[in-house]
Amino acid sequence: MITTDSATARILVTGVGGAPGLDLAARLSAAGHTVLGTDSNPLAPGLIIPGISSRTVARADSPTYKDDLRTLLADFRPEALISCVERELPLLIGMQHELDAAEIRTWLPSARTAAATLDKARFHDAVTAAGIPTPLTARPDNLDALPSNAGLVVKPRSGQGSKDIHFCDTAQQAAVLCELVADPIVQQRIAGQEFSADCLVDRDGRTSVVLRRRLLVQAGMSMVASTFHHEQASELVKATLAAIGAVGPCDVQGFITEGHPDPVVITEVNHRLAAGFRLSEAAGADLVGQTLNGLFGIPVDHRRLTYQADVHLTKYVAELSTQPRPQQPPRNQP
After folding, report:
1. Of 88, 108, 128, which closes a domain?
2. For the chain (length 334 residues), average pLDDT per consecutive 10?
3. Which regions of the chain does DSSP assign to beta strands (E)?
4. What is the count of structural domains for the chain?
5. I need a surface site. Which of 120, 143, 206, 243 has the fewest CB within 10 A?
């Protein structure tokens, strides 16, 4: 149950085609909030969630994105906006004055923080400078900087999920795979137990962390997970978020390592709710409720963000609708 201290509100949730946005829109609607869900894909499942309004918008990389959003804001008149699409962050940050003038609540990071979470090379530089263990990282022109006796991962510098990620064993193989990936980086592959951390950083910089083991991952999303406690991992997650200046809800990923000099290694930060946040709530953390408190300027109660270990979650594919799909209104139409 969402236990936010704020009254019910009109909330715009972006990216309802993915698990974070879809689950958040459903949770908010069930709690009595009036929700508008948006996505750039007219086939996004979150657009047909019962009980919410929905609109399609342009992709974040489209020149019409801002105009689409402005029209939605004028039509729907939300009191708050929560983005579940990281690529939107630089655009929303650029529109901050407009959103403030329209009295639309947001909880956005700085442009520097957004750049660090969107660009894996920048993220590596930022956390390394802060002394936080993270995989060794190289560009295609300096692969000799990586260890020759460890597995490697080739991925897009600005990628998301598991799209265009390739695993290999040698620098020679990595060089070939770099030809297949747009703007690639190559990282040392870390062995161990992969984890995610559902985090909330309040406006004073205090952070609560809920750790989840990623037991089965498909397309970058944790399908089977369980909560656990690990003091060193929690402290390192907090240090990572402080190093990049994160605020609000965030997802931190890393490994409890095997055969690595550092017992915990951080791999990335997503500046949004994670796909598995429902597990943290099932384990007792009032993650969505306290996110809404922070969003509306109410103090975050970190006592309500504690959680129980060994709570398990399994996600699965289900039928949302077998009826004829409702006709989506043309973009920018009420």
Report:
1. 108
2. 65 95 95 95 92 93 95 95 96 96 96 96 96 95 84 88 84 93 93 96 97 84 90 98 97 94 96 94 97 96 98 84 60 47
3. 10-14, 34-39, 53-56, 80-83, 137-138, 152-156, 166-168, 184-188, 192-201, 207-218, 221-228, 248-257, 264-270, 312-314
4. 3
5. 206
